[in-house]
Design a protein that fits this description.
Chain lengths: 283, 83
Amino acid sequence: MAAEAFFLPAAGGQRYCLFHPAAGNAPRGLGTHVTTCGVVVHVHPWAEEMNKSRRMAALQSRALAAAGFAVLQIDLHGCGDSSGDFAEASWDSWIADVQAAAGWLETRHGGAPLILWGHRAGCLLATAAAAAMNTPCRFLFWQPPASGKLLLQQFLRLRAAAEMQAGDSKAAMDRVKRDLAEGRAVDIAGYALPATLAQGLERATLEPPVAATSVGWLEVGSGQDPTQVPALLPASLPRIEAWRAAGHTVHASAVRGPSFWQTQEIEDAPLLIDATVAVAALL
Amino acid sequence: MTVQADVLRVLDDVLSLGGRSASFTAATPLLGAIPELDSMAVVTLITTLEERLGIIVDDDDIDGDTFASVGSLVGFVQAKLGG
């Protein structure tokens, strides 16, 4: 079934959304819908990782829709085709966007189980949005980062790497950190990163919700032996245990595939698509 | 030798070299010689080395000399691995 593109009104303008209706789910009578397996909000990664993962996000959304899930992709404030510049976005405006996307699905498919599907920084946003909502949420995580602080550090390193051939890496990195600490935006890799956004990301953690829920935790990797299933990242194991200890059901696995959100070329990870559909059915 | 194999595998994956790294030796120049190795790729390379090999790279380590050649990068990783 064809996806519907539309703009969702939001603070400071509108957000570009792409809705993938669940397969076999034609409108009935007075605009009511047959129950879906669940509704899914896609929460994209940040900065360049979002651009690199756009193709996989679209492929996955279609695969989930074909499997009976209604999926809504939203471009967060200042990202993609939504209004505003990256420089105007804040961590809180992104959390509000995820809530608005979940609210739109609730209006359309009231009562269907809600899954927040985050990728990288999107995982951190998903848990933050869930904490701010009254609706129970399940989660699907793609390569959840150890912390927002680590993601920010990786992004700031782009500046150091860009200055490397000029031999000015250390000074450039120090300048960027000082500017952010003093509340000034910094320009990195074509993004004007506002200090408020940097601070929000830096504080973000993958915080388990209070109410017990279920989580699909998926990673892609390429282990030493191409015939073996790759292992989860060592850094993920204690965090998965922490979620389980907090009473959540975590379906965690790794599949073979490229780190498509950062590879030089746009790449596909078909095994991740299959694994995601399979785990979504368990949530 | 195994460290070099690990580093080459990461290089190939991150830069989408499609197996071209098989012909690389310690003397193969990287920074400025491989067009795919832009600043984005350098950061991804560092992140991937950290994740896969369990090393921690300091921001101060991000230096042109480290990424000059396969040999300098392997030497850097070996030093981080403690031998």
